[in-house]
Amino acid sequence: xxxxxxxSLAASAGGGLTYVRNIIPQFAIRTDLRVTAALSPGLRSxxxxxxxxxxxxxxxxxxxxxxxxxRRLPELIRRSAASILLSAGNFALxxxxxxxxxxxxxxxYISRDFFRDLRSRGExxxxxxxxxxxxxxKRSIYWANATVTPSEAFARELEKWSxxxxxxxxxxxxxxxxxxxxxxxxxPVQAQIxxxxxxxxxxxxxxxxxxxxxxxxxxxxxxxxxxxxGKPVRLLLTCQLAAxxxxxxxxxxxxARLVKELGVSDMVVELGAIPYxxxxxxxxxxxxxxxxxxxxxxxxxxxxxxxxxxxxxxSDIAVHREICGEAAIYFERFSPxxxxxxxxxxxxxxxxxxxxxxxxxxxxxxxxxxxxAEQIIELSRMLMGSEPSLSKSS
Length: 394
Prior knowledge:
This protein is an alpha/beta fold. It has two domains: 2-172 and 368-383, Rossmann fold; 180-364, Glycogen Phosphorylase B (Rossmann fold), CATH 3.40.50.2000. Helices cover 45% and strands 14% of the residues. The chain contains 16 helices and 13 strands. Helix 13 links the parallel strand 12 and strand 13 (328-331).
């Protein structure tokens, strides 16, 4: 019986958290697998007890997590008698006692736009920290037996960067599981949304960070207000543009200041973080989903929006085109005017909107967590005969 050891200590927000939430239940229904999952204590409560899964709750301080994993995990893997390691947090073990699959899903390490953005904001400490992490991420590709990315576009970028072959296995989606929880949105959030009846509701699901390019989206708002001739427009954000209200070290002061300077405070609705299980309620109330991100590896909200029947406007980057195909329309990633024009196209063309929704529903149905798990398992079988920690370079 194959025995996975999943290192998910880095799963705290965004795509990493979505991945763990979905892959563990897929592994849990397999009778031919055993799983040992290392995760933070705060994440354990999200999972039921499964007969074939053992959870190891470990406290790993974010600042020193890489070194904690290198020191502590090899012995835990040996004790578990695992046969394959799935490293789900962008960094591999230098000396894994078993064959190792690295899941790489952070495009910032190779994004010129991100490094330019950091310099323009004076974020020199983050600039340096990202360079250090990029070095470790590249070494990790050499340390792992196989590296997997959630999109072909990102896989090709990693291959150019590292010189190592990379596997692309799309992340999945399960519409029934996504919409299963019937718990309503909190009363304050529901009241905010109910007050927007008659408005054009534009949704962006993300905590605040720089690479999601909030500022371009905010700059598009006065353009929309001028072009829509009085029709009220509201931008719904699942974050708050205030210090200390978002995970990570990203400072939202530039975006908050821009909202005031452009006079669009009345157009921005800061809902705050919405529990993942309740997001489907929010998509159901949106008219258009928008993402202006300039760096991505998969973008789960795009699939969630398409599956919810919400037309998508996305920045024109290779990953977005791969995930959405013809189900979205695209704009130059730093052009608020082009972004506004795309929103206007959907707003003013009923038939176009219907076509986009139909294509989105079809496209979303092509992503499957079950298929993703099967492909990871098949790759693992191929690696079972290889040497642990096969180092491609020192």
